[in-house]
Amino acid sequence: MSSTVSYWILNSVRNSIAVQESRRLYSRFVSNRNKSKWRPLRVPATLKNSFSRGSLALQKAHRHTSTEEDDFHMQLSPAQVNEVLRARESAHNILDLDSRVPNSVLRVESNQLAANAPMEDRHGVASCLQTSGLMFGVFDGHNGHACAQAVSKRLFYYVAVSLMSHQTLERMEGAMESMKPLLPILQWHKHPGDSVYKDVTSVHLDHLRVYWQELLDLHMDMGLSIKEALTYSFQRLDSDISLEIQAALEDEVTRNLSLQVAFSGATACLAHVDGLHLHVANAGDCRAILGVQEDNGMWSCLPLTRDHNAWNQAELSRLKREHPESEDRTIIMDGRLLGVLMPCRAFGDVQLKWSKELQRSVLKRGFDTEALNIYQFTPPNYYTPPYLTAEPEVTYHKLRPQDKFLVLASDGLWDVLCNEDVVRLVVEHRAEAGRHKPDLAQRPANLGLMQSLLLQRKAKGLHAVDQNVATHLIRHAIGSNEYGEMEPERLTAMLTLPEDLARMYRDDITVTVVYFNSDSIDAYHKRD
Amino acid sequence: MFYRLLSTVQRQRISPGWQTWSSARSSASATKAHSVALPAQAQVVVCGGGIMGTSVAYHLSKLGWKDIVLLEQGRLAAGSTRLCAGILSTARHLIIEQKMADYSNKLYSQLEQETGIQTGYVRTGSIHLAQTQDRLISLKRISSRLNVMGIPSEIISPKKVAKLHPLLNVHDLVGAMHVPDDAVVSSADVALALASAASQNGVQIYDRTAVLHVIIKKGQVTGVETDKGQIECQYFVNCAGQWAYELGLSTEEPVSIPLHACEHFYLLTRPLETPLQSNTPTIVDADGRIYIRNWQGGILSGGFEKNPKPIFTEGKNQLEIQNLQEDWDHFEPLLSSLLRRMPELEALEIMKLVNCPETFTPDMRCIMGESPTVQGYFVLAGMNSAGLSFGGGAGKYLAEWMVHGYPSENVWDLDLKRFGVLQSSRTFLRHRVMEVTPLLYDLKVPRWDFQTGRQLRTSPLYDRLDAQGARWMEKHGFERPKYFVPPDKDLLALEQSKTFYKPDWFDIVESEVKCCKEAVCVIDMSSFTKFEITSTGDQALEILQYLFSNDLDVPVGHIVHTGMLNEGGGYENDCSIARLSKRSFFMISPTDQQVHCWSWLKKHMPEDTNLLLEDVTWKYTALNLIGPRAVDVLSELSYAPMTPDHFPSLFCKEMSVGYANGIRVMSMTHTGEPGFMLYIPIEYALHVYNEVMSVGQKYGIRNAGYYALRSLRIEKFFAFWGQDLNTFTTPLECGREFRVKLEKGTDFIGRDALLQQKQNGTYKRFTMFILEDHDTDLDLWPWWGEPIYRNGHYVGITTSSAYSFTLERHVCLGFVHNFAEDTGAEQVVTADFINRGEYEIDIAGQRFQAKAKLYPFSSLFTHKRRKDEVELNDFQGK
């Protein structure tokens, strides 16, 4: 038994053990927040017993690996710290040299730092090839990474297909029918080091095709509006995820994968930029904000999403509206949906969407749920499912020349930095990078002055530590103290946390920063 | 077409030099629409309108080829040519480079007269500063070579430097080299002048025409696809500069041209208060990593920083081009160095920091020649920041190559075929050029090795040898042991020693050599190029008899040392061939012959499915057992008699060694010492090595490296292809007449030339020199490239040298010429001429007496085996 105890349960309970230990051993790191987004309330008695045995062994094992005091003395050098922080860095310049009008997006920089092992956050950047526009997405998985992985891959295709004109869809369908190669739908902008997702199956393509066939049946020449497209895509993908596992699937690998996807969850925030038109669709607690520089030079922050969690009054009202009055007091408990889940909207998580009967009947079909790390349970007060939805809230913003950048990030960042901090940090980083290049206008006139200036710069080490602004944000997110000052020791300590402790002090962090090209935005405006 | 060209030139004359570069780029384009259609066919298409492309076109047209089209994707003389610093310097490290630069200098100086186009040529001279004694030695070596080539240069004192250039701070200098004939010139105008002269000779020039790819059929260039249409052609010349690599890959059969660009910065200033004279000499301060020339009354100064910025790794990238900006922080070390050298410049006004990418190659030498895989595909690119200096000469050699089949000088050092596809990885190139760029101004001491791009090809024994203290050098990507550091030696100190004097591995190599002479040593020689030629009938023998100068119709099991000659009788390759059976041959050539020899054989072998040529280099690990006890080790391992009676010299047998069967054992060592080469299928390599080492223990076996081998072969007067022998040296000139089947009546390539040479006598002779009054501990060591003097007159240059532990003297090898005193014409060199001279070798300006020998000392030393003496008298080798 112990060897097959659900990974997920182990993980969460291991955390509680670890917390107790860490309180004893490392009181300065005590955190009162229970970071896990999922919190199981009842552990079935049978599991409990076997688990306590398993946990003892586990405890011992971890004494050797991570919670020994010696490990905490291991210090990373600044170079090693940078290496850890930069491991998942990526940056893309958005080149659009063929078209006459330069793209309104200049550059995308992103980075991730894992707290879970494996990391549960995902992100993606892709261009729509059959329509114009770029998409940026941040996905925060919980209860495993399967759902986030699937959504981060498939959602872009659903949106791209939703945006296609009737004519393009017909060509796609035609190609499919005659077994010809499909038109390319997306161009992914990936860091060369990123692994190529290989888990896309023909089943997924079939479902995508069913979707576009239905769109074709709607007979809309112009295709959906962007807002509609985003909303439909979210809902459609979530329902496909849910249906895929209900339908009988032949292939065991696909079936197991689908099960993992459906029984894990992910919040998503997806931005679509086409010229001046910025749409952000959000379901869950990822956040997108815009950095705005007013004409007087002052910076401000414009949030484009609202977090869907217990602190959002509108969400509370929505939930109360959707369920009988008798559940008003049980629907949110302890700041969580049904006392279990932090975000109020998410993909997957069929435990909070399906009826108990459906859950049972699907799982009865003989999945090896333990091996697949799936734990079926019913939260208390589970009367009127679904409690959870993937319907996004879509915001539209028409880009202005003063809109300089867009930050999309998972809640791992927003838990520790407020919107204003993030804008300030990005602005500082820009200024630093700007200072790096000598301004021709202010350039010292003669060689001697130039040399002394250069030497001063060298001495001060003005070269920005982080080339990548997302890395800069992550560095500050985990390395800043209560006063917002950088503490190198704190940064090192946070990064050297053993794998099983890391999650207690920080969440997976994913940051994507999109810089806009103010000149081309200006040009768009003048043209209009 | 030509008129349009001229108009461009004239506009430039009005506002000469760099000021026009930004405006010219935009203005010239819009004015003329391209109405002229491309010709449908031409003999030659040259791609690239920089100094290389125009120089090739110019020289081709001079040699009488008229049907030439030159294509340039942008404007003529743009790119690196436009932004080049315009310094022509003849002080180069290779003789062939010096010759190219010297020719360029002479060409440019009369170009204005020839074409009427102002080139801004001013003979300023150049001063190379030395801040250290080692740098001064390096300069002295260059200077003595320049002088024998007829290029004046002298070593001067700091005081004299101050006189020649008033702004210089000379307090930290130990000396300098003055080359008065060096010049500055506008390279863009030179390119335009060459283009206009070529145009007058009938070359058609089209700008704004980009080559998309080269069309190849059956390994032969047949045409070029451009954005303006197709041109049929027989020859294609890739002079695309930093885009040459990509252009090479864009053909169906990729042509690997290993080069990579790095950003390069130089500074332009406004004029000084009293503007600098236009003939102010150019300063090269290599220790300070900078060069400084006068420029429109002010200065132009750039350099080669320690931390270069490679660019265009992923190919041509608009964004990177747009982002080529001035990076002052990056330039700071060079600026500080400039102000240290010329403190008075502090108040000088800045005009611009120019960022112009330059192209570098993996070995710091340019790339020219024909592709090994595609006939008619020529390349001239990768100038390592010396495009202007090499432009004229390189263009001339390439044109000769195309017209005559080979240039008038030996250009093996620059030949594209020295590289293979193994050097064309983008990662390798990016890493290597980051090492090469600073190396341009680093001190070049004997026997340095590249640090980057290593451990690419290794023998299966690499880890074993490394663990036993092997220090490695690299050839054609292959790691070879130099020597083995004994456990008690300080390793760090050894690695970092850079000296022109006695190196600190001296004792280590001495003990390895001693072991080769007295006991037995193992050298891993797996890097050698190994081919197998087999046929169903006699085809293999027939073609080999034609391609190789020595008689290969020998009994099965015999090994023949033979040259692979060209029409002129010169060595294209020098190899050993073992006859494995009636119909199959095993051929061993130097490591860097892998590409060249393959392409030569492919080119000359008939298309015949019954004749098979296979590169088996990777299949065998080669161990060289050198020494008198090698025979004992092998007979103990094989239970077979190995004595000369059973296994005579230059014999090849397949036998078992240890448990492993099918080992090719050859009784030769490439050194003249007794011993055996073992060619071991790689899966047996470790086993055989372990067995040899454990059995050898009682015979005193130890590992040895190439330095020991080198010392052994040079004291035995063995010439090595690529170093001593080249395409211009014939067997008769190095005393190898006995290795040529002249008497046999069989035809072979080069036979006529050799017969003629035999009749007329040779004009140079390979000679061995033993340094007489040279103190190994105190004097500078010879390397190669040292001038040889006979009775006070210059007669040649050394090609290799080593310390002979047997003679306890330095031995230099080199060719002796006989230049007529009055005209300088080459005359016949006889043995008598060699023997009756008093010789001196010039090492960095200091002459050492040397004794000349035409035959090795073999008989003086104790070799009991008669058969070995046969081998020695043959003085075969590699």
The proportion of residues in beta strands of chain A is: 15-25%
Alpha-carbon Rg of chain A, integer: 25 Å
Taking all residues together, what is the mean pLDDT of chain B?
90
Number of helical stretches of at least 4 residues of chain B:
24
The quaternary state of the protein chains shown equals: heterodimer
Q: Could you characterize what this model shows?
A:
The complex is a heterodimer of chains A (528) and B (878). Chain A has 528 residues and is an alpha+beta fold. Chain A is globular, with a radius of gyration of 25 Å. In chain A, the strands form 3 sheets. In chain A, strands 3, 4, 5, 6, 7, 12 and 13 form a 7-stranded antiparallel beta sheet that branches. Chain A is 42% helix and 17% strand. Chain A contains 18 helices and 15 strands. Chain B has 878 residues and is α+β, with helices and mostly antiparallel strands. Chain B is built from 24 helices and 41 strands. In chain B, a hairpin with a 6-residue loop joins β21 (367-370) and β22. At the A-B interface, α14 of A face α11 of B.
Summarize the helices and strands and which ones pair or pack.
The complex is a heterodimer of chains A (528) and B (878).
Chain A: H1 7-25, H2 45-65, H3 69-73, H4 78-86, E1 90-93, E2 105-113, E3 121-128, E4 134-142, H5 146-163, H6 166-177, E5 186-188, H7 202-218, H8 226-246, H9 252-263, E6 265-274, E7 277-283, E8 287-293, E9 299-303, H10 313-322, E10 332-333, E11 336-337, E12 347-348, H11 356-363, E13 393-398, E14 403-409, H12 411-414, H13 419-436, H14 447-460, H15 469-479, H16 488-495, H17 499-505, E15 509-516, H18 518-527
Antiparallel strand pairs in A: 1-2, 2-15, 3-4, 3-5, 4-6, 6-7, 6-12, 7-13, 8-9, 8-14, 10-11, 14-15
Chain B: H1 2-14, H2 20-31, E1 44-47, H3 51-62, E2 68-71, H4 79-83, E3 87-88, H5 95-115, E4 126-130, H6 133-148, E5 154-156, H7 158-164, E6 175-179, E7 183-184, H8 187-200, E8 204-206, E9 211-217, E10 220-226, E11 229-232, E12 235-238, H9 244-249, E13 260-262, E14 265-269, E15 282-285, E16 290-295, E17 298-303, E18 310-311, H10 318-322, H11 328-341, E19 350-355, E20 358-360, E21 367-370, E22 377-381, H12 387-404, H13 426-439, H14 462-467, E23 470-475, E24 478-484, H15 491-496, H16 506-518, E25 521-524, E26 529-535, H17 539-547, E27 559-565, E28 571-581, E29 584-589, H18 594-604, E30 611-615, E31 620-626, H19 630-638, E32 652-657, E33 660-666, E34 675-681, H20 685-696, E35 702-703, H21 706-715, H22 751-760, E36 764-771, E37 787-790, E38 793-804, E39 809-817, H23 831-835, E40 839-843, E41 846-853, H24 866-874
Parallel strand pairs in B: 1-2, 1-12, 2-8, 4-15, 12-22, 25-35
Antiparallel strand pairs in B: 3-7, 4-6, 5-6, 9-10, 10-11, 13-18, 13-20, 14-17, 14-19, 15-16, 16-17, 21-22, 23-24, 25-31, 26-29, 26-30, 27-28, 28-29, 31-34, 32-33, 33-34, 36-39, 36-41, 37-38, 37-40, 38-39, 40-41
Helix pairs in contact in B: 1-8, 3-8, 3-12, 5-8, 5-12, 16-21, 19-20
